[in-house]
Amino acid sequence: MDRILLGDLDRDVIARCFDHGVVVNRRNRLVRRLLESHSTDRVLATFLASAVYSAMNHFWQEIEDDHEREFHRELVGALLERGSA
């Protein structure tokens, strides 16, 4: 993967992977809310990170379910550690 870009996809899609990167959908409600409000809401950002990583797991064979479980464990741990959940 070379890059993560903002782009326009169907509204219900948060992110879609392609051979060289990930497109995060600026038309999606969650993404739009984070972008328009310049939100620092860690819970919303965590949902976005989770959705993007899940899309990556589905697309790239190199990322396995065990990798995704570990990513989510770390992500939730960081959120809880900061007292945001």
Your description of this structure?
- The chain is an alpha+beta fold and 85 residues long.
- It has one domain.
- It is 51% helix and 16% strand.
- The chain has a three-stranded mixed sheet with strand order 1-3-2, covered by helices on one side.
- Strand 2 and strand 3 (21-25) form a beta hairpin.
- Helix 2 (42-59) packs antiparallel against helix 3 (65-81).
- The N and C termini lie far apart (31 Å).
- The model has no long low-confidence stretch (mean pLDDT 90).
* Distance, first to last CA: 31 Å
* Major β-sheet strand ordering: 1-3-2
Helix content: 40-55%
Largest sheet: 3 strands, mixed
Q: So what's the overall shape? A: flat
Catalogue the unreliable spans. Answer: none
Compute the gyration radius: what is it? 13 Å
Structural class: alpha+beta
Mean pLDDT: 90
Q: What is the number of E strands? A: 3
One letter per element, helices H and strands E, the order comes to EEEHHH
Count of spatially separate domains: 1
Count of alpha and pi helical runs: 3
Beta-strand proportion: 15-25%
Helix and strand topology:
Layout lengths: L2 E5 L7 E4 L2 E5 L3 H8 L5 H18 L5 H17 L4
Parallel strand pairs: 1-3
Antiparallel strand pairs: 2-3
Task: Based on the model shown, name its key terms.
single chain; 85 residues; alpha+beta; 3-stranded mixed beta sheet; 3 helices; 51% helix; flat
